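Let us walk through a complete example step by step. Step one is to write down the protein sequence. Step two is to encode the small molecule, 3-phosphoglyceric acid, as a SMILES string so that its atoms and bonds are unambiguous. Step three, shown after the inputs, is the structure prediction itself.
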Amino acid sequence: MKTIDELLSEGVAGKRVLVRADLNVPLDGTTITDDGRIRAVLPTVKALAEAGARVVVASHLGRPKGAPDPAFSLAPAAARLGELLGADVAFATDTVGESAGATVAGLADGQVAVVENLRFNAGETSKDDAERGEFADRLAALADVYVGDGFGAVHRKHASVFDLPARLPHYAGYLIATEVGVLRKLTDDVRRPYVVALGGAKVSDKLAVIDALLGKAERILIGGGMAYTFLKAQGHEIGTSLLQEDQIPAVREYLERAGKNGVELVLPVDTLVAAEFPDMKTKAPANPTTVAADAIPAGHMGLDIGPETRKLYASKLADAGTVFWNGPMGVFEHPDYAEGTKAVAQALVDSPGFTVVGGGDSAAAVRTLGFDEQAFGHISTGGGASLEYLEGKTLPGLAALED
Ligand SMILES: Nc1ncnc2c1ncn2[C@@H]1O[C@H](COP(=O)(O)OP(=O)(O)OP(=O)(O)O)[C@@H](O)[C@H]1O
Ligand SMILES: O=C(O)[C@H](O)COP(=O)(O)O
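Step three: the predicted structure of the complex.
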């Protein structure tokens, strides 16, 4: 993989360099609640701008449906990037259209622009190679060189991640180089016991990872939205909690295999429930009830692990040689459902082992709940990406940078 240092030594002054970043930051309306992913790409953007490149930053944000949707505009992220750089950052109101063309054409050496959300274009995420290719051609027309630095999205076979690098000279940015360097440690040289804590809301993406982890980790702790599919698979009622029904047979098989292989697959013993999802705007008190994990009342949803589970998970993390944690244990954005995530974060801080936190929301949780980033071995910007890396999968966005 050629890195940005090689590009810089070849000289980039006057060249249009497209940086595929992951600026998929959590938003409350148009307010960025955690800018970690923007900060993470700064070294790359700064180095290119200082070397006189005309920098075009492209990213996705959220999961819009292949058409413009103002709720997912990158405008707030572009503004924040400008603040962090201490420079004006131009913003194109489309991704590959007139605005993008004019914005990029108007860049002087050393200036930076952000184009609108890649996923406002159906070609970005299309499963059809030709459709993705057409969109990649249009992106390629905006640049002379490609720098891949959106680690959080390297597991996606998307036009800007996979097809575009094939069309331009391509290099890995500083963030990708750092992330891969640290995660390699978790695959090559693991101090044991290796404990993995999984939570979050992207249940369908993450359940499959357990399949691979069953052969790698000694202990897997399950929390967040995915816990309820496990409880359901064990025959418990889960009310209106998140459920990935089609995964129940797979989950039953994981539970059986864990038993046979001597892997501890640990599930919540209690959970916080409420009749409704909390109001995330007002953050009004949600008054949740704590119930045993096998006694979730009908019409109630599980929104955090309970106090007994917090203690249990802390004890399971206490002697870990290595910890990888992805996905909040509950809806941590609401104060009534933040304790589970706090307890796991604290257990990592207290752990003598090498600790890695992976995921946009998990990293945001750690920071917004007031933990010191330095207390963790590594905070990865990629959730799904780091999990798939640890699974040993070939990641499209890394493979594309290799040849
Ligand atoms: N029980 C639950 N029910 C519903 N949502 C939940 C539950 N527990 C956690 N969440 C939500 O999960 C979200 C984070 O999940 P996600 O899988 O995206 O995490 P991540 O891996 O850190 O991020 P990413 O994969 O996007 O990098 C949070 O917004 C949180 O509110
Ligand atoms: O948040 C993430 O994990 C990355 O930004 C990728 O987003 P996605 O899961 O919507 O592809």
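Step four is interpretation. The chain has a mean pLDDT of 96.
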